[in-house]
Every structure is written in structure tokens, then in C-alpha cells.
């Protein structure tokens, strides 16, 4: 008997999978998914069994030393690991790292215990509002609850709990995870509209659905009703969100319908102990619902019934470390393995997802296949017939009026009016991408690459001379003297930071309480959740932020959204720039006018005629999609083709560049010799930020119907592989 084992520690060679033989004494107890002890390069190491077989390999093997744990990964988890590894050209050890918490390698595979608080028979009565609230919650849960959940629901400090324990009003016990009893029905959901009822019923017969509708149209409630139905069948559910920043509002929403002890939040920012506890609760069935970021995909679900991907379009769903998986594709794999329902939902779906709902695919033998997803559309906001009004401000006219403030005159006026009505204001500044585009201040267009027509960015050489560089095809151009459209000489890079914006806002609105949410102000643990709670509770009037505030915020009192400089998104050196701009503008604008309230958005731009601005102003996704897809098709860009990026990294720029150049020659030769009838686009360019962490980065882009064919059977060690990349820089 033989086994394939993935060592705990990554190997500097090969795929990370090694074959070992099984000694006779261990054969009766050996199983896939166990952690075992092995001898590797003269050292005792740990590894996980992913396959057991009988056929003798063509080489000598070494025996497993001993079994360390029971089976901790199921066959379904192993299947998921192998699909991720194969599709994303990853080593097994990198994928296994996502699946097994670090603390598991140091344990004996026995589930940890959990602290419970139990109400005791007492003579004295609890005093104070907080103590009474704790006992009300306990009584609703049969007098016993996990301490973590009770403290969270009551927002009780450790001092309050200690006081009750010392008085003998409660006692603390350590027990193995107890699987909660699922009620026959959950709390009632709001009454659905006629359209919502129809869509909900039709979605039940669809294994893969794309649920589309404007912000506030009830997409999340529909998805949660599907989740509730699966839980009542005894299944588990996974609800994915792009950022943990929005978790606080989701905990509140989930708590309206589900008992707190059956769901939990999971993300990479948890401590190792927290991850370990949640991992075991999912493994043992203690938790029925997990909502979290992309890391939650790799929890050991035993009986998964539904996967929901909220805000499906968000680029945060792409992992930037190996394996460089995308949640949409990984969720498809996971749902198929478990035969589970998959729901993607967004007000502004990615073009890749939307394309999958209305395209007939063909296999290599030209056999017609059905669409991969079924599209369901909610047309109206829940409780409101009108989307928020969007006012478009031309910043070129502001300059002509000698207004050099980042706040247009209209935005200043609207903010004053909003504050007078005791409404809150959300100010959004897009800071995606670092290098500056070259933009005409007269007509608003950005300079594009002379070769491939993608956006191009300003760089400096060693002598501080500026030039233009395309990060898609590698073309280098001189800085033009004048604009190609209007001949103006006012060509400049531009941008403004959140801190500058905050200072200006304090000058213009001195009596307003202002909060700032960006990478600096939210760096501390739970800082983003604290900011959101402070703003949603009405303790601040204005919230200034970057991408993080445009995702999933549902605060009814927001009366105005200001988008300070929409143009940054237009000028990204990426063929998806227009798509990202439209999604960003639509999502941020959707933060106002919730729960039937009127809302308004002021969108400031140097390019008001840009399609993303025009279609956002009309709330018209379909026309934007049709126009963008025509352009993508003419250029043979995704989703009409697939793409893979190879990233070459070295401390020496010369070595990184030379290696990438050699690989480009190798790939072109392979294309012409093995696949002469296939059409590929192969380009080489330095990364937009060429030097990162003291290393130089060059990348090769491969586009075609099957770019993976050029990489199969190649030794790719030392190269970072990014399949289906979501950016070009």
C-alpha cells in the first residue's frame, strides 16, 4: 500500500506531493486526510495524506513513521484541493496551507473545548440593565450559551461577566462543541414583493444563478431565504463577502433570522486560536452558516448545501498569493463537488459573470452546451420606485470658475443642505492604482498607448526624465507636447489624498464631525468595524473614505454621496478600466437613498462624456455591458478569451528581464510548433510598480482560448503564475 503525502513545509522543488509506503502495522488505520509523521531529508516532518493506492511506483519509497491524527480532511476537501492546485498551477503545499489551520499541525486532531455560561438557580436578582439583558438572552436560549456569543450579543465586558460569576448567578463550563438544535422554522422574513416571490421560486430549480438588481432591491434577503431553506434540510451554508469591513452590519442582519450559535464570521485576520475553533465547529457540524471573506472557502464543510458570493464583481475576491485563485471559479468548484446551489449576486456583475448567463458555449468538438448560469433580475429597489438622483459635475468648468478646491460648488451646496437636514454624507475618493495617468485638463481624455490603445502611465528614468510606459504590451512613448484631441498643452498627472480631503472638509464644514476610513486609519484590528459603527450610530456627520466604504454599507440616514474624482478609475492602465469605473461609481452611488428615503449623488469628473459616467447617471447596466462587450470582442480580450500572467521576480533587474525575455521566446516557439492554428497574444512588460520590496517585477501576458496549453508540461518553478488575472499591472 502506498500514499501520496503533502509535507507541512513547502518544498523548493516539484509539486509538493511525495509518495511513501505504508508499513503493515499501520495499514488497518490509514485514511486519506490524516496527518502523519514522515522522514524527509533525514528530518522528522509532518504531512497530510491525499491519496492511497496499491500499485508499486517506479521508484523506491520510504515508510510512513506513524499516524498523528484521525481523518481531518474529507474526500471532498481533498478533491477541492486538487482542483485548485491543477487549475491555478499551484503547488499542493500552498493549497494545503489554506485548508489546515497552523494550530492543527501542533495538535492531536481532537476538537478543542468551548467556554459556556449557564444560568444557575439563584436567590438574588441580576442588577443593572446589562445584567438583565444577559439573563434575557440566556432565557431565550434554554439558560445556556457559548460565552463568546453571549458577550457579543449583550455587548458585555469581562467585568460584567466576572461579577455575575462571583455572585453565583451564572457558572462557566468547558465542554466539547455542542451541535445546536435547529428550529423547525426561523424568524419570519419580510413579505416579498410579487417579483421577488417569482424569482425566489425560479431560483430553487437553478443550480447556478446570477442575481442582479440595484442596491437595496432585496438581493441579500432573497439569498438568505435560500440559505434558511438549506439549513432546515440539515445542510451547511457559505455566504462570502469581499471585505470583513462589512461584517458588523451582516452579523446584525443574520441575527434577525438565525440563532446566533449556528453562524460565525471567518476571515484571515482572526487569531490562530479563533481559526482553529471555527474550523472544528464547521468540521463537526456545530456551525451551520459561515459568512466571511475568500479564506472561508477552504473550511472543512461536510454537508454544504449552498454557496452565496455577495458583490460578485469585487476584485478583492482574487487572491494575490499562490494559489492565485478567484472566488468565483473556486466557488464553482466547491459547489459542484458538494452538489450545492451557487448564487452570485451584484448590482453591477462582472462582465465575465454576465457573459456566462447569455452565451452558448462549445466544446472542442463543437457540441452546443447550455449557459453556465441563469440570470435573475430585480428591477426596483425594495420600498422605493426611484433610484438615487445622480448630478454630474464637469471639473473643467470648475477650473474656469477659478474653483481649485477638490469640492465643486454644487457639492459644497449639497453638503450644507444635507447637514441642515440632519442627514449624513459619504465622500468617496478612488485611490486604486499608484502611478499617475497623463490627462488633458481641457477635454479630460487620458493619453493611450500608441500600440495597443490601453491607458498608459507616467514613469521616470534614472535621470528623472519622464516617459510613458504601457504595462499591457510594454510600449514606451515620449510625453506628448499637446493633447491629440483638442491640442491643449495642459497635460498633467493628477490626484488627491484622503488626508488632504479631510483638511479641506474641516475648513468648509467646521461644525461637522468628520471620520476618515482609508488604509492608514483602518490598519488596527477591528478599526474599520469601529469606524462603521460610529458612523452608522449617528456620531459623525461626514465619512471620507476609499474603496472600503463603497462595499455593502447600508445606512438609511445617508442623504448624500460625493464622488470626488471619478477619473482615476478611467485612466488605469487596464483594459477593464471602464468596467471597474462603472462598477465603482454605481456601487458608491447606491449607498444613498435606502429604505425608501430619497438619495442624491454628486459625481465630479473631468470627463463627463465617458461611457461609465453616462450609463451610471442613467442607471443603465445593459447598455454599458453591450458597448463594453463590443469593444472587448473587437480586441479579443476576456471574456472572449482567457488570460494567464507569468510574473518574474529577482533582486537584479537584469536577471528578471532576461528570464522573462527567454520565456517569451520559448512560449512563442511552442505556439508555432505545437499549436500553429491557435491564436495567442503574448506580451512582455515591466510591472507598473517595477520595484517592490527590493525586487524587480516583469510579467508576460498570454491571451487566447487555451493559454494553459502553452504552460502544460513545463517546469514553472520560480515563476509566479496568475491565471485569470483581474488587472494588467
Poorly predicted spans: 361-368
* Continuous helix count: 20
Structural class: alpha/beta
Distance from first to last alpha carbon? 48 Å
Per DSSP, what share of the residues sits in E-state strands of 2 or more residues?
15-25%
Radius of gyration: 28 Å
The main sheet orders its strands as: 11-12-10-13-14-9-17
Helical amount = 25-40%
Main pleated-sheet profile: 7 strands, parallel
Mean pLDDT score, rounded?
86
List how many beta strands DSSP finds: 32
Overall geometry comes to globular
Task: Write structural notes for this entry.
The structure is a single chain. The protein is α/β, with parallel strands linked by helices and 729 residues long. The strands form 8 sheets. It has a 7-stranded parallel beta sheet, sandwiched between helices. A 6-stranded parallel beta sheet has the order 18-28-27-19-26-25, sandwiched between helices. The protein has a 5-stranded antiparallel beta sheet with strand order 2-1-4-3-5. A hairpin with a 5-residue loop joins strand 15 and strand 16. It is globular.
Amino acid at each position: 500500500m502506498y500514499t501520496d503525502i503533502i509535507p507541512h513545509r513547502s518544498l523548493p522543488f516539484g509539486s509538493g506531493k511525495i509518495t511513501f509506503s505504508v508499513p503493515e502495522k499501520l495499514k488497518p488505520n490509514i485514511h486519506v486526510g490524516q496527518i502523519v509523521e514522515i522522514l524527509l531529508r533525514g528530518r522528522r516532518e509532518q504531512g497530510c495524506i491525499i491519496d492511497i493506492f496499491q500499485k508499486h511506483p517506479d521508484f523506491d519509497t520510504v515508510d510512513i513513521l506513524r499516524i498523528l491524527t484521525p481523518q481531518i480532511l474529507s474526500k471532498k476537501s481533498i478533491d477541492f484541493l486538487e482542483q485548485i492546485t491543477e487549475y491555478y498551477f499551484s503547488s499542493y503545499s500552498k493549497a494545503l496551507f489554506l485548508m489546515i489551520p497552523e494550530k492543527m499541525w501542533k495538535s492531536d486532531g481532537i476538537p478543542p473545548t468551548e467556554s459556556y455560561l449557564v444560568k444557575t438557580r439563584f436567590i438574588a436578582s441580576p442588577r443593572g440593565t446589562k445584567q438583565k439583558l444577559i439573563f434575557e438572552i440566556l432565557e431565550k436560549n434554554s439558560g445556556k450559551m457559548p460565552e463568546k456569543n453571549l458577550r457579543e450579543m449583550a455587548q458585555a465586558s469581562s467585568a460584567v461577566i466576572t461579577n455575575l460569576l462571583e455572585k453565583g448567578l451564572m457558572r462557566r463550563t468547558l465542554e466539547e462543541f455542542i451541535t445546536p438544535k435547529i428550529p423547525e422554522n426561523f424568524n419570519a422574513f419580510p413579505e416579498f414583493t410579487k417579483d421577488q416571490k417569482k424569482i425566489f421560486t425560479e431560483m430553487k430549480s437553478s443550480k447556478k444563478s446570477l442575481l442582479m438588481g440595484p442596491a437595496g432591491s432585496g438581493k441579500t434577503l432573497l439569498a438568505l431565504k435560500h440559505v434558511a431553506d438549506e439549513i432546515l434540510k440539515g445542510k451547511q451554508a457559505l455566504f462570502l463577502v469581499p471585505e470583513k469591513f462589512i461584517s458588523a452590519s451582516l452579523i446584525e442582519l443574520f441575527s434577525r433570522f438565525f440563532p446566533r450559535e449556528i453562524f460565525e464570521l471567518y476571515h484571515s485576520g482572526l487569531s490562530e486560536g479563533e481559526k482553529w475553533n471555527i474550523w472544528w465547529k464547521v468540521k463537526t457540524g456545530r456551525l451551520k452558516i459561515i459568512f466571511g471573506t475568500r479564506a472561508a472557502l477552504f473550511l472543512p464543510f461536510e454537508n454544504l448545501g449552498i454557496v452565496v458570493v455577495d458583490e460578485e464583481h469585487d476584485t478583492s475576491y482574487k487572491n494575490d498569493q499562490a494559489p492565485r485563485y478567484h472566488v468565483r471559479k473556486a466557488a464553482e468548484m466547491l459547489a459542484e463537488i458538494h452538489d450545492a446551489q451557487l448564487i452570485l449576486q451584484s448590482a453591477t456583475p462582472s462582465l465575465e459573470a454576465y457573459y456566462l448567463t447569455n452565451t452558448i458555449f462549445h466544446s472542442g468538438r463543437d457540441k452546443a452546451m447550455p449557459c453556465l448560469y441563469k440570470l435573475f433580475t430585480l428591477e426596483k429597489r425594495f420600498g422605493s420606485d426611484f433610484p438615487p438622483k445622480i448630478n454630474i459635475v464637469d471639473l473643467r468648468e470648475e477650473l474656469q470658475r477659478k474653483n481649485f478646491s477638490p469640492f465643486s460648488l454644487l457639492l459644497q451646496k449639497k453638503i450644507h443642505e444635507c447637514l441642515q437636514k440632519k442627514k449624513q454624507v459619504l465622500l468617496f475618493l478612488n485611490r486604486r492604482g499608484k502611478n499617475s495617468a497623463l490627462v488633458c485638463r481641457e477635454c479630460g481624455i487620458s493619453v493611450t498607448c500608441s500600440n495597443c490603445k490601453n491607458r498608459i502611465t507616467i514613469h521616470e528614468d534614472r535621470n528623472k526624465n519622464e516617459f510613458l510606459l504601457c504595462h499591457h504590451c510594454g510600449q514606451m512613448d515620449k510625453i506628448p507636447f499637446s493633447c491629440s484631441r483638442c491640442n491643449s498643452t495642459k497635460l498633467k498627472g493628477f490626484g488627491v489624498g484622503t488626508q488632504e480631503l479631510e483638511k479641506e472638509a474641516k475648513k468648509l464644514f467646521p461644525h461637522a464631525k468628520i471620520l476618515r476610513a482609508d488604509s492608514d486609519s483602518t490598519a488596527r484590528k477591528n478599526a474599520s468595524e469601529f469606524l462603521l459603527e460610529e458612523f452608522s450610530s449617528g456620531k459623525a456627520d461626514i465619512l471620507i473614505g476609499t474603496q472600503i466604504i463603497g462595499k455593502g454599507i447600508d445606512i438609511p440616514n445617508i442623504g448624500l454621496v460625493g464622488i470626488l474624482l471619478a477619473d482615476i478609475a478611467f485612466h488605469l492602465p487596464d483594459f477593464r478600466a471602464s468596467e471597474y469605473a462603472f462598477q465603482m461609481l454605481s456601487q458608491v452611488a447606491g449607498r444613498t437613498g435606502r429604505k425608501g428615503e430619497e438619495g442624491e449623488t454628486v459625481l465630479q469628473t473631468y470627463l463627463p462624456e465617458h461611457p461609465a459616467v453616462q450609463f451610471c447617471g442613467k442607471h443603465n447596466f445593459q447598455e454599458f455591458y453591450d458597448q463594453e462587450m463590443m469593444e472587448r470582442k473587437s480586441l479579443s480580450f476576456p471574456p472572449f478569451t482567457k488570460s494567464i500572467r507569468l510574473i518574474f521576480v529577482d533582486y537584479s533587474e537584469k536577471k528578471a528581464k532576461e528570464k522573462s525575455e527567454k520565456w517569451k521566446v520559448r512560449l512563442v516557439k511552442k505556439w508555432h510548433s505545437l499549436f500553429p492554428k491557435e491564436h495567442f497574444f503574448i506580451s512582455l512588460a515591466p510591472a507598473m510598480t517595477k520595484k517592490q520590496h527590493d525586487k524587480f517585477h516583469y510579467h508576460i501576458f498570454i491571451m487566447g482560448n487555451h493559454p494553459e496549453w502553452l504552460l502544460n508540461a513545463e517546469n514553472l518553478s520560480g515563476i509566479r503564475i496568475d491565471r485569470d488575472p483581474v488587472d494588467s499591472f
